[in-house]
C-alpha cells in the first residue's frame, strides 16, 4: 500500500533513444536518484515518472524547523509530516535540482524535455469531504470547510477562501446600504423639485448638442433621464459614501482579527517565510549559501521610467476612448435613422463602455507581460519577493486600465468642452461630448453598470467554461493505446497507478498565477465596489451576487477541473492587505470627488442658501431649490454660433425665443465669462471636498484604532505559550545551577 503513494508525477514525450532530450531527461532523473528518490516509470502515449522522496528528507525538515508539523509531540520524533508539507518539500527539491549541464526542471520544461510536473489528486477521505461540502452548487449558502481546504490545498489557498468568505459576508451590509440609498432615491427624492422643474420646462429651449443635424430641443424632453439621475444624485448618496468609507475600514480591521485567529489556530502566527525557504534550500543542498539581499538604484530608476511609460500608454487608451465617443456622437447625430440620431448620446456612452470592457480584457494580458518583464529587471531574491513586486505592478497597471475612462467621465466630462460659440474640438473638427442636462453622474452610473455587469457575467462564464471545455477535449483526445510487447510491458499496462496518473494528466494545468488571478479579480472588484460607489450604489449588491457564485465556481475548478495545486504556506494574504488599504484611502478621495465635482449636490446647496427665493423672503412652505434649473442654465445668442455650424438646426415648430438658447453653465449673457456664482460653487466644492476627506479619514482612523488588529484571546494564547516555553527552559537550567 505504502509503495503506491507517489508525491509527484513527471510527464514527458517518448523521445528517440540517444536523442538530446532523452539524455537530458536521464541526467535529471539520475540526479533525483542520487538524492534517494524512488522513481517509477509507466509508458502510455506519454512517459509518466512517479517520484517519491526518501523519508530522511522529511526528518531533516522536522529537525531544522521547530514548526507546527513537528511540535505536536516531542516523544515521537519522526512522525509523518502532513501531505501538504510533503508535496511542498518535494516540489521545492524538483524545482531546484540541478543537472550536470546546470539545468533545472524549469529549463528542461522550456526545452520540452518534460511536459508537465504535478502532485496528484488522490482518492482520500478529505477530498471526498471537500467534493461533498464545498465543490458543488447545492452547498452554495453553506459555510466553507476552511480547515479541510487547508489540509488539502495548504494555508495560502485556505486563507484566500477565508478572506473571500469574509469579504462576501461583509458585502451583505454594504449591499443593504446601497439598496436603501436607491430605495430612498426612488421614493423620498422621486418628487424632487429639480426633476419636477425639468419635466415642466416646456418653454426652455436648449442649444443643439452637436454641430450638424442637431436641432434646438426642449429641456422637458429629458424628463425621464432627470428622474433616474435624481434616484442616485441626492442627499442619501452623501451619507452612503461616508458609510462605505467606514465600511471599507471596518471590513479590513475585522479581517485582520479573523486572520490572527486563524493563523494562531494553525500555529502559524509567528511563522517566518525566510527561515522556511532557507531550511528547504539546505535540505535540497547542504552546501547551499543564501542569496543575499541586493538593491540597485539604477535598476529601480529604469523600472520606474518603464512603469510610468506604461501608465502613460494606459491613459492614452482612455483618451482614445474619449475621442471615439466624441466622433461616434457626431456621426450618429448625422445619421439618417431617426432612432440613432435621437439617442446619439446614450448610444455613444453605451458603446464606449463596451469598448472600454474590450480594452480591459486585452490590456490585462499585455499588463501581465509588462509586469513580469519589469520584475525580471529587478532580479528579486526569492519567489515570494518576486510575487510581491509583481502584485504591486500589475495592480497599478490594472487600476489605470479599469479606471482611466471612469476618471475622465467623473471629473472631466462636460468641464473642458468650452461653451456654445467657442467649443473645444478634437483636431479642430469634432466637439467634445457634454454631460447630460440632468448632470454627469448618470454617465458614470451607466459606464459602471455596463463594465461591472460585463466583467462579472462574461468573465465568470469564460473562467468556468474554458477549463471545462479544455478538460472535456483532453479526455476525448486519447490516441489508441500502445500495445508493444517489449520487456515486461504487459504487467506495466495493468498498473493500478496508470489510470490515476492519466486522469490527473487529463485535468487542466495549474500555473503559479492561478491563485494570483483570483486575488486580482477580487481586488479589482473591490475597487469598483468602493471607489466610485457614490455614483453606483448597486455595486456592492452586484459584487455580493458574483462572489457567492465565484466561491463555489473556484472550488469546482480546483477540485474537478484542474490538477492539484502545489500547497504553499502562509499566515496572511500578503501584499494584498496593503493593496486593499490603499484602495480604502482611494475610495475616500474618489467618493469625495464624485460628490463634490460630478454630482449636482453642491450647486443645489449653494443655490438653496445663497440664491434661492428662501434667502430673500421667509417662505416656510416653499422648497428652497425652486428655480434652481433656470438659475443653472446660461443664455446664448444664436447669432454667436460658429460660422461652420449649420443653420438648419430648427426643430419644426420650435424657434428659439428672442434668438436665444440655453446651456448648462454659469456664464454671463453678454461676454460669456464666468459669473460670480460659478466661483461661489467652485469654492463650495473645494471646501466640501476638504471637509469630506478629513471627516471620512478621521472616522477611518478612529475605526482602525477602536477595533484591535489582534483579539485579546489570541494575544493571551501567545503570551501563555511564551511563558510555558520559558518555564520549561528554566527547569533545565536549575539542576545545572544546583550541581555547580
UniProtKB/TrEMBL annotation:
InterPro entries xref list: Anoct_dimer, Anoctamin, Anoctamin_TM
GO cellular component, one term: plasma membrane
Keyword annotations: Cell membrane, Glycoprotein, Membrane, Transmembrane, Transmembrane helix
Residue stretches making up the Anoctamin dimerisation domain: 84-146
Annotated Anoctamin transmembrane domain residues: 149-718
Stated family: Belongs to the anoctamin family.
Superkingdom field: Eukaryota
Gene designation: Ano9
Chief site of localization: membrane
Transmembrane regions: 157-186, 236-255, 301-327, 347-364, 390-413, 523-549, 570-597, 682-707
Protein name: Anoctamin
Amino acid at each position: 500500500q505504502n509503495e503506491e503513494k507517489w508525491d509527484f508525477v513527471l510527464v514527458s514525450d517518448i523521445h528517440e533513444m540517444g536523442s538530446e532530450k532523452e539524455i537530458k531527461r536521464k541526467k535529471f532523473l539520475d540526479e533525483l536518484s542520487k538524492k534517494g528518490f524512488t522513481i517509477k516509470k509507466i509508458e502510455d502515449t506519454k512517459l509518466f515518472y512517479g517520484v517519491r522522496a526518501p523519508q530522511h528528507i522529511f526528518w531533516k525538515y522536522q529537525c531544522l524547523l521547530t514548526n507546527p508539523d513537528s511540535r505536536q509531540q516531542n516523544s515521537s520524533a519522526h512522525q509523518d509530516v502532513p501531505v501538504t508539507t510533503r508535496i511542498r518539500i518535494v516540489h521545492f527539491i524538483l524545482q531546484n535540482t540541478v543537472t550536470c549541464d546546470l539545468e533545472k526542471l524549469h529549463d528542461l520544461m522550456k526545452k520540452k524535455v518534460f511536459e508537465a510536473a504535478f502532485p496528484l489528486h488522490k482518492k482520500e477521505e478529505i477530498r471526498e469531504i471537500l467534493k461533498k461540502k464545498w465543490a458543488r452548487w447545492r452547498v452554495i449558502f453553506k459555510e466553507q470547510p476552511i480547515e479541510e481546504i487547508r489540509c488539502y490545498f495548504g494555508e495560502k489557498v485556505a486563507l484566500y477562501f477565508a478572506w473571500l468568505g469574509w469579504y462576501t459576508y461583509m458585502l451583505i451590509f454594504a449591499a443593504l446600504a446601497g439598496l436603501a440609498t436607491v430605495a430612498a432615491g426612488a421614493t423620498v427624492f422621486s418628487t424632487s423639485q429639480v426633476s419636477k422643474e425639468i419635466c415642466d420646462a416646456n418653454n426652455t429651449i436648449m442649444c443643439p448638442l452637436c454641430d450638424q443635424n442637431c436641432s434646438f430641443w426642449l429641456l422637458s424632453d429629458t424628463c425621464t433621464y432627470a428622474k433616474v439621475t435624481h434616484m442616485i444624485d441626492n442627499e442619501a448618496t452623501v451619507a452612503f459614501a461616508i458609510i462605505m468609507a467606514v465600511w471599507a475600514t471596518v471590513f479590513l480591521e475585522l479581517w485582520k482579527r479573523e486572520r490572527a485567529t486563524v493563523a494562531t489556530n494553525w500555529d502559524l502566527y509567528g511563522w517566518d517565510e525566510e527561515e522556511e525557504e532557507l531550511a528547504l534550500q539546505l535540505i535540497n543542498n547542504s552546501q547551499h549559501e543564501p542569496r543575499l539581499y541586493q538593491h540597485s538604484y539604477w535598476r529601480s530608476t529604469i523600472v520606474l521610467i518603464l512603469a510610468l511609460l506604461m501608465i502613460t500608454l494606459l491613459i492614452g487608451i482612455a483618451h482614445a476612448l474619449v475621442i471615439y465617443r466624441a466622433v461616434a456622437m457626431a456621426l450618429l447625430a448625422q445619421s439618417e435613422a431617426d432612432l440613432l440620431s435621437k439617442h446619439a448620446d446614450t448610444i455613444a456612452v453605451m458603446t464606449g463602455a463596451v469598448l472600454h470592457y474590450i480594452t480591459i480584457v486585452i490590456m490585462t494580458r499585455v499588463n501581465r507581460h509588462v509586469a513580469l518583464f519589469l520584475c525580471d529587471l529587478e532580479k528579486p531574491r526569492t519567489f515570494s519577493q518576486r510575487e510581491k513586486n509583481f502584485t504591486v505592478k500589475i495592480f497599478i497597471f490594472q487600476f489605470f486600465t479599469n479606471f482611466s475612462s471612469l476618471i475622465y467621465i467623473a471629473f472631466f466630462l462636460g468641464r473642458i468642452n468650452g461653451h456654445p460659440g467657442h467649443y473645444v474640438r478634437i483636431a479642430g473638427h469634432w466637439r467634445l461630448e457634454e454631460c447630460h442636462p440632468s448632470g454627469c453622474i448618470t454617465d458614470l452610473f451607466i459606464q459602471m453598470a455596463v463594465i461591472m455587469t460585463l466583467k462579472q457575467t462574461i468573465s465568470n462564464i469564460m473562467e468556468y467554461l474554458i477549463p471545462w471545455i479544455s478538460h472535456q477535449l483532453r479526455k476525448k483526445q486519447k490516441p489508441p493505446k500502445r500495445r508493444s510487447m517489449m520487456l515486461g510491458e504487459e504487467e506495466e499496462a495493468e498498473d493500478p497507478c496508470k489510470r490515476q496518473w492519466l486522469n490527473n494528466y487529463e485535468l487542466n494545468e495549474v500555473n503559479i498565477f492561478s491563485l494570483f488571478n483570483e486575488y486580482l479579480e477580487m481586488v479589482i472588484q473591490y475597487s469598483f465596489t468602493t471607489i466610485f460607489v457614490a455614483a453606483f450604489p448597486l455595486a456592492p449588491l452586484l459584487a455580493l451576487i458574483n462572489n457567492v457564485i465565484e466561491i463555489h465556481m473556484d472550488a469546482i475548478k480546483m477540485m474537478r477541473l484542474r490538477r492539484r495545486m502545489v500547497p504553499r504556506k502562509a499566515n496572511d494574504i500578503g501584499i494584498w492587505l496593503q493593496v486593499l488599504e490603499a484602495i480604502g484611502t482611494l475610495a475616500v478621495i474618489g467618493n469625495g470627488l464624485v460628490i463634490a465635482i460630478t454630482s449636482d449636490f453642491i450647486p443645489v446647496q449653494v443655490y438653496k442658501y445663497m440664491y434661492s427665493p428662501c434667502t430673500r423672503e421667509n417662505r416656510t412652505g416653499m422648497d428652497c431649490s425652486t428655480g434652481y434649473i433656470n438659475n443653472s442654465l446660461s443664455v446664448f445668442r444664436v447669432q454667436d454660433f460658429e460660422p461652420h455650424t449649420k443653420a438648419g438646426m430648427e426643430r419644426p415648430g420650435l424657434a428659439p425665443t428672442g434668438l436665444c438658447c440655453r446651456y448648462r453653465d454659469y456664464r454671463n449673457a453678454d461676454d460669456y465669462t464666468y459669473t460670480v456664482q460659478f466661483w461661489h460653487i467652485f469654492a463650495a466644492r473645494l471646501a466640501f471636498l476638504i471637509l469630506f476627506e478629513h471627516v471620512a479619514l478621521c472616522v477611518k482612523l478612529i475605526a482602525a484604532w477602536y477595533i484591535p488588529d489582534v483579539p485579546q484571546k489570541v494575544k493571551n494564547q501567545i503570551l501563555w505559550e511564551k511563558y510555558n516555553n520559558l518555564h520549561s527552559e528554566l527547569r533545565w537550567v536549575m539542576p545545572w545551577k544546583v550541581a555547580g
